[in-house]
């Protein structure tokens, strides 16, 4: 019964750690220097340098629209003079963030569905006699379905497919010579949804001719959104001519980074562009290039379909947008963080017996009506609470 | 030798912090209230409100398929009556998450590769005499390659290119008037790979006509995946007619957010749609619109190529999917967290000398065979371990 | 005045927590075991297993290029024999990370802009008399604009549109039978920008024929980047034939995961592929498939436009790349972490009075010139700093 009451009473006792104080100036100064260091770290590094009081939004919303300008003339034995505009050499034409620019091409005009010999370049199409060409079988990595006959003149199976089959000759010069001078206009709109902040990489300017004349350069003109294709490739550390001609194409990444401190002025939030070649391996050896095929279909007067097949080589550009915006966080939290630092400093109260301060403590003590007067001390005591508990103990003893 | 043994023995001493207890009810109650507050915070806020026991998966996998419906009739002086279906006005046609809808267009039919005068709108094409037009030079931002002659009638260089060159007249009315009524069906499949959870934004319903008749509305019909294009644009806070006609196009973002508590019922995990205009600057001024060109190629009976060039204006829609799923985390961890809170509460044992409890402590002590009996105490002592060490010390003294 | 000086002096006092030591071997061993456990956890789990000393880069940059190979022959009553190559059955043709493969199609050739009866399948086009067909009104979910007349023979309104209207018959067999054997070559280049690390999923090999012959298999050949389309679909747990024929299409996700420990050898950083069906609901019921329409435009000798409309069904493949790279972090931080663990171990100095060690302490004390000699002890004391403060207190008492 008495135990229960005791237990219940003791629930409301206040327990705290006991501190000891060393009146050693050397150690004390070191200790204070350490505390100052922690404080300086928190205020200087976390708050001022790293801006720990700011809220971060890394869920950037981005929309990229691209537009290419420039024309190039090609002169091939098959096709003669041909003028290429952006509507032809950019695929897809609608200005997406990933696009392909044709620099070389192989044209196979007037293909019709018919029977003809498979290309000698296709291993599975080789034959010596008709029995090597099973009728109805697909030529692996080939151009059609085997008809069952072996064409002696070429040593390949006869196939049903688009005839004549594509010529497998490799281009050694850039057909679209002027491709280096094409310009890429990148419009990038971003939004930090948390802060309702929108911005574009195109400067708000009243000067209409600015966008017509400017050209991006990382130091001279870092905010112009128009890039010369040749420069854009060269900035990756690879030569445009090598990529377009020898390597028959490649993939280039344009990285747009928006790291914005939204506490600062609107005009200080600007993108930083960087350029990398994407299709490289560790030893910087490039892979076999980038090409694909597409066809244009026509109908003759009899209504029969024929087509022109294009195998195109070129440069693929991937525009990748990353970024984060920071903004001052809730004042309440900020206030709490300030307080807590302050509080931590104030937490370790005077615990050492010393004439002036402990006299004050004793005076406070005396004014508390519900507490017994402190007895004459025999033992050492180290602070207010230690003292109280000491009294109690000695009393019980 | 003895020192070594002593050191070795002392390795297995148990060190703990020393506590003092204040038998002050006011402070004690405050202290307990503070502890209760921390406990309430952990249980109420971290566990119940913030669901701290749940695991998060923010690597949402998403696939978006779109389909547009609706037809529009245009009547131009050049082309006459023309009916536009989704196969024509949506680019690309395969229903991707980023697509473009034509609302206006300028058609330049029957272009052939030939020599003709450059457009008067191109500054670099202006000339006074033949020497202004260097043969073989590209007209900057123009339509072809200079032939070296100056066409007096227009005051521009003669070029080799697709002739006649595109007419630069601006549209002032929306040609595809009915574009506002086109419907966009957005199928969005998501997956939280960590929890093997899949869902679609299309309701599982046995009612076949539901999808044929419903139309999304943020309050009346928030789960219908079919959107009227005009509404979709207007919900961004911009007028469809303004965007499509005056501003000659724009970009709209449709954000689908999946924030799912997977502890709840499957039917509670639903997407929230929001709509923003992407091509705006801070002052909400819109940029110059969105357009691009594409061409359709034909061959005449003689096998010569000609084409129809389209410059199309319109609305680009970017569908962006974000989201995260939360699910109850490992029971072991949960158990551990519960235990640790429990443990923390239990950690601060009775350390104050008080008749009942410390008598128990002494009894326990007596039962330990390897320990000397506690001597009569002279000094104060504050707890079990303090007591033990005190005994030892006095014994050694 | 004296108070001020006292306060100023006391600022440089060193405060620390007071420890007590229990010379109880059982408790001591338990305590050491607990400490060893914590240490083992930190070293074994955090450092060795979880590699807590490594820095993480989860902002992977990725570029995906795809290429399909294979041909298929179709034989339809309308179109006769037709050979499909990758340039036809892959949309878009430029090898993006999201692409569509045609497996079935409905061809509507020779459509011209004209007046004809609406399809019976369109509910809004049904009519009994001319007044049911308001002139100039769009047929909802239909193919054109009502002309105002009702065609008695079909019971539908006459429309102006592309005539004849598309046939609404459903395919029940896979037209591109061989689609299962198409191969998908996925080139994936990744980069961890923080560590300047690039890699491709295509092995660096001198064996030219490796890529020509290999075929991906999760156990036999996990690093070959060429996938058989049928396998790719079947690995999602759904049958290719079902998806391509019965369900008339679907969407498949190919997830490429790069989780690389860049401390290890370059060759150890390899992608892991996984395959999921994206267009499923919770009950694994598939949705109505995936289809879209596109048209090819032609001009007749009179210059009039006609077209062939294709409604295509098929399989959409979304290639998603995720990953993170880890690398050993700053040596300074690592050193600090090691030190702090070391320091924590060293922090709790001998605090117990014991002949050897405390004699050493006293010796050190004696050598400090600015400190009074330790008095003969009467009371117990527990450590260096306690002792010092005790001295001071007794002195002041």
Automatic annotation (TrEMBL), chains A, B, C:
The keyword Cell membrane applies. Gene3D superfamilies: atp-gated p2x4 ion channel, atp-gated p2x4 ion channel domain. Keywords: ATP-binding, Cell membrane, Disulfide bond, Glycoprotein, Ion channel, Ion transport, Ligand-gated ion channel, Membrane, Nucleotide-binding, Receptor, Transmembrane, Transmembrane helix, Transport. GO terms for cellular component: plasma membrane; postsynapse. Disulfide bonds join 116-163, 127-150, 133-157, 214-224, 260-269. Coiled coil: none annotated. It is found in: Cell membrane; Membrane. It catalyses: Ca(2+)(in) = Ca(2+)(out). The chain crosses the membrane at residues 29-48. Glycans are attached at residue 181. Receptor for ATP that acts as a ligand-gated ion channel. It comes from Albula glossodonta (roundjaw bonefish). This is P2X purinoceptor. One of its GO terms (molecular function) is extracellularly ATP-gated monoatomic cation channel activity. Pfam families: P2X_receptor.
């Amino acid at each position: 019964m008495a135990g229960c009451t005791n237990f219940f009473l003791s629930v409301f006792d206040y327990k705290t750690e006991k501190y000891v104080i060393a009146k050693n100036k050397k150690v004390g100064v070191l200790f204070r220097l350490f505390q100052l260091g922690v404080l300086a770290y928190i205020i200087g590094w976390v708050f001022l340098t790293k801006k720990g009081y700011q809220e971060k939004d890394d869920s950037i919303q981005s929309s990229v629209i691209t537009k290419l300008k420039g024309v190039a003339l090609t002169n091939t034995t098959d096709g003669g003079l041909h003028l290429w505009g952006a509507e032809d050499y950019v695929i897809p034409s609608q200005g997406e963030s990933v696009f392909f620019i044709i620099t070389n091409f192989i044209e196979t005009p007037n293909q019709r569905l018919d029977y003809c010999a498979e290309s000698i370049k296709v291993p599975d199409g080789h034959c010596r006699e008709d029995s090597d060409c099973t009728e109805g079988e697909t030529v692996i990595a080939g151009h059609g379905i085997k008809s069952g006959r072996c064409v002696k003149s070429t040593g390949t199976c006869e196939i049903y497919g688009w005839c004549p089959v594509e010529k497998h000759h490799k281009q050694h010069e850039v057909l679209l010579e002027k491709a280096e001078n094409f310009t890429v206009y990148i419009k990038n709109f971003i939004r930090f949804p948390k802060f309702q902040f929108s911005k574009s990489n195109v400067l708000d300017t009243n000067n209409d001719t600015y966008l017509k004349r400017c050209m991006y350069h990382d130091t001279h003109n870092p905010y112009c959104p128009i890039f010369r294709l040749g420069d854009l490739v060269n900035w990756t550390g690879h030569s445009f001519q090598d990529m377009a001609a020898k390597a028959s194409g490649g993939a280039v990444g344009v990285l747009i980074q928006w790291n914005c401190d939204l506490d600062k002025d609107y005009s200080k939030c600007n993108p930083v562009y960087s350029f990398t070649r994407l299709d490289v391996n560790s030893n910087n050896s490039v892979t076999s290039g980038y090409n694909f095929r597409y066809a244009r279909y026509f109908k003759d007067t009899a209504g029969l379909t024929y087509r022109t097949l294009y195998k195109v080589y070129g440069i693929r550009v991937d525009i990748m947008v990353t970024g984060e915006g920071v903004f001052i966080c809730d004042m309440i939290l900020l206030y709490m963080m300030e307080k807590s630092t302050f509080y931590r400093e104030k937490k370790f109260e005077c615990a050492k017996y010393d004439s002036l301060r402990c006299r004050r403590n004793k005076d406070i003590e005396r004014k508390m009506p519900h507490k017994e007067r402190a007895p004459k001390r025999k033992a050492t005591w180290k602070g207010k609470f230690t003292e109280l508990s000491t009294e109690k103990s000695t009393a019980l003893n």
